[in-house]
Amino acid sequence: MKKSEAKKRIILLSNELKMHNYNYYVLNNPVITDFEYDILMHELQELEKLFPELAVADSPTQHVGSDLFSDYNLIQKAAVSTNGNPAIPDSPSHPQDAPLTSFAQFKHKYPMLSLGNTYEIDELYAFNERIMKGTSDGLSDSVTYNCELKFDGTAICLTYRNGKLFRALTRGDGTTGDDVTLNILKIASIPKELKSSDSFYRQNKTDNNSSDVGSAQKQSWIQWPEEFEIRGEIYMPYEAFDRLNHQRELDEETPFANPRNAASGSLKLLDSNLVGERGLECTLYHVIAPEMNFITHTEALTAARMWGLPVSDLAQECKSIDEVVKYITIWDTERKKLPFATDGIVIKVNQLALQKSLGFTAKSPRWATAYKFKPEVALTKLVSVDYQVGRTGAITPVANLEPVQLSGTIVKRASLHNSEQMDLLDIHINDYVYVVKGGEIIPKITGVDSSKREPDAEKAAFPQFCPDCGTPLVKDVEEAKSFCPNTDGCPMQIKGKFIHFISRKAMNINAGEATIEQLYNKGYIKILSDLYSLDQKQLLTLDNWKEKSAANFLNSLEMSKECNFSRVLFALGIRYVGETTAKNLAGYFKSMDKLSSATKEELLEVEEIGEKLADAIIEYFSHPDHLEMIGKLKQAGLKMENLESDYQRLSNRLEGKVFVVSGTFSVSREDLKTTIEQHGGKIGSSVSGKTDYLVAGEKSGESKLQKAAKLGIAVISEEELQVMFNS
Ligand code: IVH
Questions:
Q1: CATH H superfamily, domain 649-726
Q2: Exposed / middle / buried, residue 342 (Cβ in 10 Å: 0-12, 13-18, 19+)
Q3: Predicted confidence (pLDDT) per residue in 446-495, tens digit
């Protein structure tokens, strides 16, 4: 290749990779598979090797993680709206995992690097050659490799100080990470405190059911150092991932593309309580404790396991590269039986002294590499396309395929995302399409084999009218989605709203989709409040329903009346109002009456409420039918306001004091306000002569601070408030 051509190609590849990095690291929404990404990266690396003079300092080959996107910080800043709230509402177009700036950031003690990788076994032999060359004469026979699964999640760096979890940082740009300690504390498998030698000794004694202390000594307990780091991966097992995506679909939020994005998105949630519900797991694979003088990596991991840290027991020490290849061959099949995603095998030189002498390149260690599994691709025929109507009217195209075997399962359906994606692929009915299922649970169509297209093939046309009720569709350009605007008349949307209303996180009514379908088809339920007028006679007309099932259902309806106001609000299914938004709204307005008459300006005052959400709320309450239906729900006994009893009184320490809360905190602002009220305090919305304290968090409103200074009102931090709670 000529130098001028290489230059053009390098620029093209760099821009392309930067865009994919932005999608991956900033939006958490990759549009190409890892495999496609790695091919582009390898091509760039090869060209830079051939023409080193063309390699620039900010090349994607020279950086780790999000710093590949050069304007990352600017984007982070842009993500914060003028009122200091993250401009990332609970909306389908903004997955919750978009970057927020409210985590404190800390520099890593040692940079968090990436790993070189390959899809070719031959290249592992070349890796072995390089290691052997870097080994002093006569010692190459004693080199071993530790083979580990490559867990497909998001990297974490934990620091333990005096045996206690001190800090947890994400990788960030490799140099500086986000402090996600509060979130990490919610992951059950990560110990807050390490086991002591004493507990290890006692445990071994009882395990062996003997008073012989010898066995404990044989395993030679090693005391943890005063401070050390241990790195690993936070991942989301398939089961938790399916559960989360199912809920997101019910809430009409964009499902996460794969467990890895779900894990990194969850780790970046601002409300640590939500993190606890996400079912995250952790595995740790890299101990950094120089003063321990461990001889091998395996030895360090064994010690970490004894200290109670989650270390995988699927790793294996291999004496040669042939043994490494055997391990890879076994796990390429076995990994399909694991309850979590793995995207390869990591091969590490075991001897720490050799690791040290081999050192690092700018981006990765020379003593380790990753062999990555190629995602499986299948070619199959597209039979037809279904257009599903969600509860908010969003139309999703789903491809029906001729069944094909892929990554251990039979695939019959695959996502086509939206009309743009269909146009991009130029999908025709009866086309042969490529289906990929990498880490993804929902298979994707990534391409078409147009050479197999029949001349008279018909283009798959996205409908102009709702497939359920025939209403002309409208397009939301920003969200690249088409909607059926017949919100209150489209049967699919109505049924979807009932299914959402009864769901576990909403009113938690003991019934399923089939019951809703029957009740609706029989004409018993048209609007949500109709549920509370159902009687036993009607229920006994449903297929296979007996007295007992009817009684259970009626009982469950009765119990649902105990749900608090924020749940009722969430259950209404107002567009974009997810669980967190409902909590914030309920916390701020306290009653349905106040919320339904709120102005846009008032709504924008609420934590995490942006323009789009405010408009959707105003729109919902502008319909007299909705207000009438809410009236009926109220009559049925549903809670339409926050009750004193919703808040457990904790003390009277703040009795008579008025607090204004501004900025972001370690907990959500609404939770902080609730705690103030639980201690007897009152919340004011703006700083005035009546205010006693302004509680200022990060990015608190400048005008509030100025006004407080002018009026001589005490400005306190979250920590000072905590002291007031406790003393
Ligand atoms: S070792 C300096 N071991 O894969 C070496 N990484 O693509 C640090 N990963 O950044 C990494 N499983 O986030 C290592 N058993 C394992 C791993 C692993 C998953 C991740 C890690 C790393 C990325 C590189």
A1: BRCT domain (3.40.50.10190)
A2: buried
A3: 889 989 999 999 999 999 999 999 999 999 877 778 999 999 999 999 99
